[in-house]
Structure formats: C-alpha cells, structure tokens
Design goal:
alpha/beta, Rossmann fold, 4-stranded parallel β-sheet, single chain, 11 helices, DegV_domain_contain, 6-stranded mixed β-sheet, Hypothetical Protein Tm841, Chain: A,domain 3
C-alpha cells in the first residue's frame, strides 16, 4: 500500500466505485435545508437535492466539513500512512482549504499537504485522480504536490452555462431588473473560475449559442488529434450531457470523454439545468 493517502472533498464528484478502486478518501461538505443538515454524496445525492430545491423554493446553505471531522480522519489515516495529500475545492468559495491546513497542524504522526485546486467539480477531480495515480506508483507527498502545481500552471479550462436565471436571482447574483431582462432575452450566462471565484465570463442569448461558444473556446485550445481528457458536467440534464459527450467524441478522435454532475454544493451556486465542459491535455 502507498504511504501517501489521497483525500478529496465531496465537490470533486468522483463516483464511489472509482474512489474505492483508486484508494481515494472522501470527506463531505454539508448542505443545510432549514435546520436539517445533510452530508453531500453520503446523505444526499444530486437528483434528490434538485428535487428538494424545487419543493422548498428557498436555496439551501452550504458549509465546510467541521475541523473535528478532518482531525478524526487524519488520526485514522495516521495508523497506516506517513503522509496525506488533500485536494480541496477553491478557497475562494469555501473555507475547506483553511480548515484542512489547520487540522493538519493539530495531528501528529502524519504529514498533511493541502492543495487548493482554485476550482471545483471535474477539474478538481483531474487533480485528485492524478494524485491517486502518483501515490499508487510510490511518489511522496512533495513530488505529488509539485506535479499538481505544474498541472495548475498549465491550466485546466472550465466553462459553465447557467440555464435558470431565477436560481441566480434567489442566490443574490442577479437583481430583479436583471432577471426580467435576462429572461426576456433568453440570456444564458457562461461562468468560469477566476482568482478562485465563480464569475461571469460572457452573457449569451439562448442555450444553443452558449454551448456553441464553449465549443468555440475548445476549438481554439484543442486540436482534433490532441490527446485530451474532457468532462461534460450537468445538473440533472443527463440526456443533454450524453449528446454533448457524443459530439465531442466525434470531434476529438483521441479524447477520453466522460460525464459528471454538479452535486448539491456546487448546484447551490449554479442551479438545475446547468451544463459545463472542462478539459485537460495529456
């Protein structure tokens, strides 16, 4: 067994069978509806979450793992591992990174390296899966961190299209006038991560044009014969994600294309119907 444990928070949305196969440990962020708290991926799945949002009307709150949970996890891992590498969602949208750093200083017997992905969802998963691959090959924590930093420097583009402007309005990202005009003009904002936060990239009219714009950005960055990993991410729109993935496989012959999802925590930011595309060259 590797001497380096690999930990991710739940927002990388790596399926359980892959986590088990690759020896990846997950710790959940929380979603709070009224006074009920649910651990993402463990106690609430994506589809159930979107159904609950539809019924409740009000948006839930989200919270990072309690520092006590992180300490407990590290103490457990210290029985079998000398080091751990934890890849967190962006420190610009969650305190998970800071909590993990603090927890690492509180536990003896295991050296914790915390990597701020500065993003979330599948791009975060790209880092986690690479870390697990390197750990299983016998790399130490410092080498893994250096490799992840090199990946970050090379860039992992990711663009998200928001389908439901009402969701952005409820979350305080749009005022009532912007909501009215946006719905009237069928505006579909494209968002991305910049300086660790989710921010607008462009406003495009209609879903079809928004997706075409993301495809155009890919065309500027990826050649048809490039070896590339691509993830299509959806918020309860699997049929659409499958269509997009098939189109990408036809377009990029050497692409490894998979489908992921926006789970509860990131779904709170983006809303049902959102779609995203991210890629990394191999």
């Amino acid at each position: 067994m590797s001497k380096v444990a690999v930990i991710t928070d739940s927002t990388s949305y790596i399926p359980e069978h892959i986590r088990n196969e690759k020896n990846i440990v997950m710790i959940s962020l929380n979603v709070v509806f009224d006074k009920e708290t649910y651990k993402e991926e463990a106690e609430i799945k994506a589809d159930d979450f979107y159904d609950m949002v539809g019924k409740e009307g009000a948006l839930p709150k989200t919270s990072q793992p309690a520092i006590g949970e992180l300490v407990e996890l590290l103490e457990e891992l210290s029985q079998n591992y000398d080091e751990a590498v934890m890849i967190t969602l962006s420190s610009g949208i969650s305190g998970t990174y800071q909590s993990a750093v603090a927890a690492g200083e509180m536990v003896e017997g295991i050296k914790l390296h915390v990597f701020d992905s500065e993003i979330s969802c599948s791009p975060q998963a790209f880092y986690v899966l690479k870390a697990a691959e390197l750990a299983n090959e016998g790399s130490n924590g410092y080498d893994i961190m250096n490799h992840l930093l090199q990946m970050k420097n090379n860039g992992i583009p990711a663009y998200f299209m928001v389908d439901d402007l009402n969701h952005l309005h409820r979350g305080g990202r749009l005022n009532t006038a912007q909501l009215f005009v946006g719905n009237l003009l069928q505006i579909k904002p494209i968002l991305h991560f910049e300086d660790k936060k989710i921010v607008p990239f462009e406003k495009v009219r209609t879903k079809k044009k928004a997706l075409k714009r993301i495809f155009d950005i890919m065309d500027e960055n990826v050649k048809p014969d490039d070896k590339v990993k691509i993830s299509v991410i959806h918020a309860k729109r699997e049929d659409e994600a499958v269509e997009i993935a098939d189109e990408l496989r036809e377009k990029f012959a050497n692409a490894d294309v998979w489908i992921s999802y926006f789970g509860p925590v990131i779904g709170t930011h983006l809303g049902e119907g959102s779609l995203g595309i991210t890629w990394i060259k191999e």
